[in-house]
């Protein structure tokens, strides 16, 4: 199976690998698993006081497409508002990386992870 250059680049040089302190008030953590293959993705966002995502990190235990998808979304969410981050579609990720059909669920994992991270952040801030 031929993978795109962008996919290989994100796979070989993943951006923003790591973790923030889960307990930090400015951090939202999303942890999701893919039923199809058992892969797990943890994605975290660091949000400024005016609601902008300043930084993002991920750790993915899974296939190359899952790693590339999470690497890509951590780049995409930086500088975005929470609503803008929620609007990221797996189809955009799949298209950017030219994921083959059997790997589409890897991009869904990334979309779910960012949504879970935003939800976690919001939940921390309900007053
Ligand atoms: Fe095995 Fe994703 S299917 S790592
Ligand atoms: Fe399952 Fe990529 S996340 S194969």
TrEMBL record:
Ranges for domain NIF system FeS cluster assembly NifU N-terminal: 2-126
SUPFAM superfamilies in UniProt: SufE/NifU
InterPro entries according to UniProt: ISCU (IPR011339), NIF_FeS_clus_asmbl_NifU_N (IPR002871)
Coiled coil stretches, renumbered: none
Gene3D superfamilies: 3.90.1010.10
Known role: A scaffold on which IscS assembles Fe-S clusters. It is likely that Fe-S cluster coordination is flexible as the role of this complex is to build and then hand off Fe-S clusters.
Protein name per the record: Iron-sulfur cluster assembly scaffold protein IscU
Species for this entry: Vogesella facilis
């Amino acid at each position: 199976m031929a993978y795109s250059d962008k996919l290989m680049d994100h796979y070989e040089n993943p951006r923003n690998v790591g973790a923030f302190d889960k307990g930090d008030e400015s951090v939202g953590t999303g942890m999701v698993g893919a039923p199809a293959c058992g892969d797990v993705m943890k994605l975290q966002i660091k949000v400024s006081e005016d609601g902008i995502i300043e930084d993002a990190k991920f750790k993915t235990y899974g296939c190359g497409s899952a790693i590339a998808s999470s690497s890509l979304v951590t780049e995409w969410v930086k500088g975005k508002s929470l609503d803008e981050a929620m609007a990221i579609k797996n189809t955009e990720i799949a298209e950017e990386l030219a994921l083959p059909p059997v790997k589409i669920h890897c991009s869904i994992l990334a979309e779910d992870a960012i949504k879970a991270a935003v939800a976690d952040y919001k939940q921390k801030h309900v007053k």
